[in-house]
Design a protein that fits this description.
34% of the residues are buried. It contains eight helices and 14 strands. The strands form three sheets. A six-stranded antiparallel beta sheet has the order 9-10-11-12-13-14, with helices on both faces. The chain has a five-stranded mixed beta sheet with strand order 3-4-6-7-8, with helices on one face. Strands 2-1-5 form a three-stranded antiparallel beta sheet. By secondary structure, it is an alpha+beta fold. The protein is globular, with a radius of gyration of 22 Å. Helix 2 packs antiparallel against helix 3 and helix 6 runs antiparallel to helix 7.
């Protein structure tokens, strides 16, 4: 998301009342009256929602929608929902209560300001089998389960419908934000400067990056010694950094290792990961493109052969371009 767009007046939201209601409900140990009040406040609020547009969208109309400018008759673009998935495969509609809760990531390239009531309606009618709405997924997260919006509170059911994201769920969301968003974004922006800082600061640099999604209120589970980096000057045109990532809490789709390849002469960079496979399946060699696209490339090669496989893929890609 372009921070310049996010700074414009259309995104100037004050959802203090909503945020206080979420905190109040969390502290109440599932008080149904507080839940009913929380949902009422949420439906009356405006929120920032990640969306996707058609590839060949009219830029003028797109910019109007991003800036909250009223559209003329006939000026409209279809919006495609963006979802986030937890470690159990449950899909949620992500929303943000304010621009301060949004961290830079290519996972959410576009965002618009919409009534939360519309998000609720879309979630209930979605054919994507959504589990609910995830509020502020990058900074702690609060889940509205889908059934909470369908609950008859007059029946005073004691069944819990809304809860905070579990520690395990947030761990997956936070780690994917760093591995698939923050690190490749910084790498492709800073290139050689990023590589040099990684070489100089190693584990401490990575610990700081992995701690960012946790903010000031939640402790990060990772220490400097959980990361290991090794820099290899293979030739004048190739410097490779092999990164061993934290193994504790590792689940499917998390990266257990990363490989960054840099050409000091052209400042070209590449970013690859070895991601843990699903239970009973092999790990996968993936990459992130400069455009932020995540690609599964092949079954992970045997331990010790990963860097060779990465360099072969880069070489083959260059040969195809020539």
């Amino acid at each position: 998301m372009d921070k310049k767009i996010l700074a414009r007046p259309a995104y100037n939201l004050d959802n203090t009342k909503l945020e206080e209601a979420m905190a109040d409900y969390n502290a109440s140990k599932n008080d149904l009256k507080k839940l009913e009040e929380l949902i009422r406040i949420f439906k009356e609020a405006y929120v920032i929602v990640p969306v996707a547009f058609p590839k060949k969208a009219d830029v003028r109309i797109l910019m109007k929608m991003l800036n909250g400018v009223p559209l003329k008759k006939g000026e409209n673009l279809p919006l495609f929902p963006v979802t986030v998935t937890d470690s159990n495969g449950n899909k949620y509609s992500p929303v943000f209560t304010s621009r301060d809760k949004v961290q830079e990531t290519k996972d959410f390239p576009y965002m618009i300001r919409v009534p939360a009531a519309q998000v609720v309606e879309n979630t209930l009618k979605s054919k994507a089998n959504l589990a609910g709405v995830l509020v502020n997924p990058q900074t702690g997260g609060f889940v509205f389960r889908k059934k909470a919006f369908e609950t008859d509170f007059s029946a005073q059911t004691s069944k819990r419908q809304v809860k905070k994201v579990t520690k395990e769920e947030f761990l997956v969301l936070a780690r994917n934000t760093v591995e698939k968003g923050q690190i490749p974004k910084l790498l492709f922006e800073r290139k050689g400067d990023f590589v040099r800082e990684l070489e100089e600061r190693g584990g401490e640099f990575l610990r700081e990056l992995y701690a960012k999604p946790y903010g000031d209120k939640l402790p990060s589970p990772y220490a400097t010694e959980d990361f290991s980096t090794m820099s290899l000057n293979i030739n004048e045109e190739t410097t490779a950094i092999c990164v061993e990532l934290p193994q504790k809490g590792l689940v499917a789709h998390m990266a257990r290792a990363a490989y960054i390849v840099w050409n000091p002469q052209t400042d070209e960079v590449h970013y690859y990961m070895i991601e843990k496979g699903l239970r009973g399946e092999e790990d996968v060699l993936c990459n992130i493109t400069p455009e932020g696209k995540h690609q599964e490339l092949m079954t992970a090669p045997p331990t010790g052969s990963e860097l060779t496989a990465v360099l072969d893929l880069i070489r083959e890609e260059k040969e195809e371009e020539e």
